[in-house]
Amino acid sequence: MLTVVVGPVPGERRGAVAALIADAVGTADAAGRLLDRSVAVTALWSDDVVAAACVSVDAECGKLRAMAVAEPFRGRGFGRALVDEVTEQLGLEALEAETDADSVGFYRSCGVSVESLGEKYPGVERFLATRHTTTTATEPARAGKTPP
Fold first, then answer.
1. In this structure, are residues 28 and 72 in contact, taking their beta carbons and an 8 Å threshold?
2. Residue 20, number of CB atoms within 10 A of its CB
3. Of residues 36, 20, 14, 111, the one with CA closest to residue 69
4. CA distances (Å), 3 to each of 50, 52, 119, 147, 148, in order?
């Protein structure tokens, strides 16, 4: 069963979450610093950490700083679950992520608009992915969701 937790990472799971985030940001030290100053989003499958993200929040806009899904679980909807849950649980009007060409397809599959930022670094085109929410007071709650 899939469980997505938005908030502080319990001590017993911090190592697993930091290891996933390190895959996205390059080093364990950078992952630890990011976890310390961001809202953590953790996907658990049968109590195992299978995906994680770090989000900074400014008013009602979130910035996805890093996201990673464990290799055996990629392509199964866990990344999308993180995007959906962080937006919903934090009540965000928008969620943004700066990304590379390899991740553009993922963000588009999540219903996110993507625009080129151009060649931000020599030889590297970057993109801004932005998801705007359009929830209303009459929209039904998403309780009882099934795992991806």
1. no
2. 21
3. 20
4. 10, 12, 37, 8, 11
| Segment 83-104, tens digit of pLDDT | 999 999 999 999 999 999 999 9
Closest alpha carbon to 39 in 89, 110, 84: 89
User: DSSP string covering 71-117, please?
Assistant: GGGTTTTHHHHHHHHHHHHTT-SEEEEEEEGGGHHHHHHTT-EEEEE
- Whether 53 shows a pLDDT value over 50: the answer reads yes
Q: Delineate the domains of the chain, giving CATH numbers in brackets.
A: 2-132 (3.40.630.30)
pLDDT bracket for residue 139 (50, 70, 90): very low
Residue 148, amino acid = P
| C-alpha triplet 12, 18, 24: angle, nearest 5° | 155
